[in-house]
Each structure stands twice: as C-alpha cells, then as structure tokens.
Design a protein that fits this description.
Length: 83
C-alpha cells in the first residue's frame, strides 16, 4: 500500500478522500469546504495536514440534526394488544 492510500484510511484523510467519502469531486469539495468552514466545518489541522475525520463526520451529523440521535435504541417491549 502506498503512503497516500494508507493516509486515506486514517483519522486525517486527504482532501480527495474526504471528497470521495462525501460523494463529491475534489474540485466540488474544495469550493464547498471553504463555505462550510465559515459554518463550522473543521479546518485542516496545520500539524497533521488534514481534517480530523471524526470531527468532519460529527459536523455533518449535527448539520442534519442527527448528532444526538440513536435510531436503534429500544423504546420498550412491544404491546400488540394496544393496536
């Protein structure tokens, strides 16, 4: 595995890999990332040279109202007699 490919699987993926994960072309992502940074998208970390992927993911989950959602949480036993 080359250095770039291994970097794309880590916590600080390349911008091209982030674009791929978000179904964007690298060019589309570059333009959108600038605007989204003004809205809270994590910036590229100057030491690590990439965006911290868990924070990017958390940003988008919060943006779409899913940051605290747990859709698989049980809500109690089923009561079929209630129908």
């Amino acid at each position: 595995m080359n250095r770039r490919a291994s970097r794309d699987h880590g916590l600080f993926p390349s911008e091209a890999e982030i674009a791929r994960r978000l179904s964007q072309t690298p060019q589309e992502w570059a333009a959108k990332a600038k605007a989204l940074e003004r809205d809270g998208l994590p910036h590229i970390d100057p030491v690590m040279g990439g965006r911290f992927w868990p924070a990017v993911r958390a940003y988008f989950l919060a943006r779409y109202g899913l940051s605290g959602a747990d859709p698989l949480a049980p809500d109690g036993p089923e009561n079929l007699d209630a129908l």
